[in-house]
Specification:
InterPro entries: AlkZ-like
Strand content: 15-25%
Largest sheet: 4 strands, antiparallel
Pfam families: AlkZ-like
Number of domains: 2
Structural class: alpha+beta
Order of helices and strands: HHEHHEEHHEHEEHEEHHHEEEHEEEHH
Organism: Streptomyces resistomycificus
Protein name: Winged helix DNA-binding domain-containing protein
Number of strands: 14
Oligomer: single chain
Number of helices: 14
Distance between the termini: 54 Å
Strand order of the largest sheet: 11-12-13-14
Helix content: 40-55%
Amino acid sequence: MGDEERYVGVAERRARLALRHRLAGVTRAAGPQEVADSLVALHGTDPATVYLAVGARLADPARTVAETGRALYEDGGLVRMHGMRHTVFVFPTELTAVVHASTGLTVAARERAALLRDMGKAGAPDAAWLKEVEDAALAALARRGQATATELAEDEPRLREQFVYAAGTGYEGVHTVSTRLLRVLGVEGKVVRGRPLGTWTSSRFRWAVAPAHPELDAAGAQASLLGRWLAACGPATEADLKWWTGWKVTDVRRALAAIGARPVSLDEGVGYVVAGDVGPVAGPAEPWAALLPGLDPTAMGWQRRDWYLAPELRPALFDRSGNVGPTVWWDGRVVGGWAQRPDGEIVWRLLDTEGLGRDAETAIAAEAERLRRWVGTTRVTPRFRTPLEKELSA
């Protein structure tokens, strides 16, 4: 068997995950920028996930809220924007052009066409009118720096206009121009989410003009993004890569060829790593525990998850749409879930106790206490509730 077909087993995949995702104690990061660089992207659909994912990986989590907020809204090291699978993520700012060209442009064209189609069916004004409103809104946003949709509508009243969507169907509803237009502008890379209205757990955001970035070739950008992700998460199968990126399989294969990805053998078939990463990887010297939030990029990183998450645990830990809730990890695998009660207590339950002893439970309890201390008086309820989280938090 050649080197390109070297078998990478479950133990090694878990070792790579521990080291590269900064989950083992010795690998924890000094700041949020290091965490984001290591993971490539932090899920941002639930704002709390960003902070909880960072805090779980910092050597000193007491600084999580202040430093993550500063990176997002002051220093400009991190940007919250639409990315893969039309999902909101937080990226290192240096990746904004890559994400925009590799995944955003295709989705953006589809979203703008859908908006114009829906407006046309509702008898709303045409594309020229929408362009006028768009230009006025962007100019107002540039003047204000950051603003809510309501504030922008003070400068451009046409943003308040409404149209009926899907009239006569079970999906019928009323859409405001500002809601749909700002969403399209976000996918197009013209605006990004700014400071939240409230605490770090708030889902209500101001908008800001997106940072300037060069326009890249789509194929080159796809190769760059896939290479970054494989370095952090490889080995991965074509199915994993297609799922994570949201691309067509032809795009995935072209990007794999462009970066010279190397095949390896996995339990589920052929996987890929970046060139130079075929050799064996030894894990951390000591087993490790972690409490990761709902939608954490490690738990959601692969489509095929049996190597770190037993199928029988999924009904308790996922919602009906496939969103993972808060998870408890021991030495590279999910062993349970956790939640925060109204009084702030962090509670957890083990669902898979195979091979777990007193040391594991002690380490998990220490992680729960570590989380409780830095979260403090803030109460965190995941945006997507899962059966075990709801039960534990009651």
